[in-house]
Predict the structure.
Amino acid sequence: IAYFVVTGPWRERFAGSSPLEPRHKFYFLTGAFLLYLVQGGPLELMSHLTFSAHMIAMAVSYMMAPPLIILGIPAWLWKAAFQWKGFRKLSFLMHPIMTVLMFNILFSIYHMPNIHDQIMTNYALHTVYYIILLITAFMMWWNVICPVPEWNRLTDLRKMGYIFLSGMLLNPACALIIFAGKPLFETYNNPEVWAVAMGYCVPGDPSVLLEMFEGPQFFTPFTPAEDQQLGGIVMKLLQEFIYGAVLARVFFHWFRKEKENDDRTPDELLGREGQWNRA
């Protein structure tokens, strides 16, 4: 509602504003819907039932929804949102190396077995960690698909390297999950720990869940080890698909730009260079 009010009736209050394009609405609504689906909808509950559903929710939350929401907000609104001078002092946090490391380190730490079980069974910690992880996901994606041209820190070639680096940094966590010889997470293996974790989204006495279902194995035909391996594989496949799609988008943008430069006459290129020098 706030999105459509700000970009509609209140749009004239912002300098340089323009009507929303259909693509902006599509991107934003799709991203917002996906984020709700996995953080407040059915997938939130399912992610507490099986590890494979949990990994799907993680991929959608932090690799699919953030870039769509970023693309759905027009450049003039981003400029208005970050015009406060205090943001300039925090600009060092948006350095590409900083953002790619922060997100991938936090994501990998979260999937260390002991830390994961602690976060899943501590509701306040669970909420805070997920919010921080979501913020760092937006920061990481910003450097890839920054909608404000003058704020772009990376060339298209560097963006391709950035995406490749981000994918490589996720490999150790995925490999640990896929190739582990035994179940790693008590949340999806130990019925008592699972019941406590379920309290995050299902109110009431955890012992009632145990009486009704006896544990997470009730909701999946797979053993805990198989469900864990499936979750790691699904996560890796979704990550590769999303990163591959974004990589293709960046590549074709770079290719079109290079082709346009090749089609220009020497006089046009020299004229453009002269304009840059004068600026």
